[in-house]
Amino acid sequence: MTDNILTAYGLDPAQCRVDAFGSGLINDTWNVTNGADAYILQSINTNIFKSPRAIADNLNLLDAYLKQQHPGYIFPAPLPTLSGEYLVVDDGKHYRLLPFVKNSHTIDVVTTADQAYEAAKQFGRFSKMLNGFDASQLQYTLPDFHNLDLRVQQFEQALGTADSNRLRSAEKEVAVARSYSSIADTYRDIVNNKTIPLRVIHHDTKISNVLFDNADKGICVIDLDTVMPGYFISDVGDMMRTYLSPANEEEQDLDKINIRVENIRAIADGYLSEMGDVLTPAERELFFYSGKFMIWMQALRFLTDHLNGDIYYHTKYPGHNLARAQNQLLLLERFVAMEKGL
Ligand code: GN1
Ligand code: MG
Question: Aminoglycoside phosphotransferase domain: which residues (predicted)?
Answer without folding.
Answer: 20-252
